[in-house]
Amino acid sequence: MLGRFERLVDPYAPYDDRAPMPDRLIPFILYFLWPTRWVIAGGMVLGLIAAVFEAALVAFAAELIDILATTAPDQLWAEHWDTLLFMVVIALVIYPLTDIGYSVLMGQGFYPTNGALIRYRTHRRMLRQSLSFFADDFAGRIANKQNQLSGASATRVSVASAGAPRACSFRPFS
After folding, report:
1. pLDDT tens per residue, the chain (174 residues)?
2. Could you please report the per-residue DSSP string of 5-35?
3. What is the pTM of this model?
4. What is the rounded CA–CA span in Å between residue 112 and residue 109?
């Protein structure tokens, strides 16, 4: 059912494995995230949309309290049906769809393929090392960092695509 999202990025796509690996942080991260750039961009857009609707829910709650405080119960639907219907559509349809869309895109389209892509590319680089390299204790530490790299990059992307837009979206409503 979600196979289409899992095939958005091919972690085993051909690339220039002889190219030098960047030695600075941002170019290094971009080197590994470049094949997933469109999935990350889509996640950021959906994350921002979901964040705006999430912040709107807080504003809706405040507006609903004001409406209930100033309107008689028998006149509530007659006077404010359009506002209440708008709130229900946002809260029960649009916000859940955008949040589910973000979760599916990132959870199926980015995290698994990003991990496989980074592990595959770093493993290919490790295969070109000499046998004496692997006899050294240092090689074990490099292999450990190699496995940690995919989780670390996914965490940074998660913060950028979901956390930052959500933090910024609450400002206009405060």
Report:
1. 788 888 999 999 888 888 888 889 888 888 888 999 999 999 888 988 888 888 889 889 999 999 999 999 999 999 999 999 999 999 999 999 998 999 999 989 988 888 888 888 888 888 887 777 777 766 677 777 777 877 777 777 777 666 666 666 555 555
2. HHTSS-TT----TTSPPP-SHHHHHHHHHGG
3. 0.78
4. 7
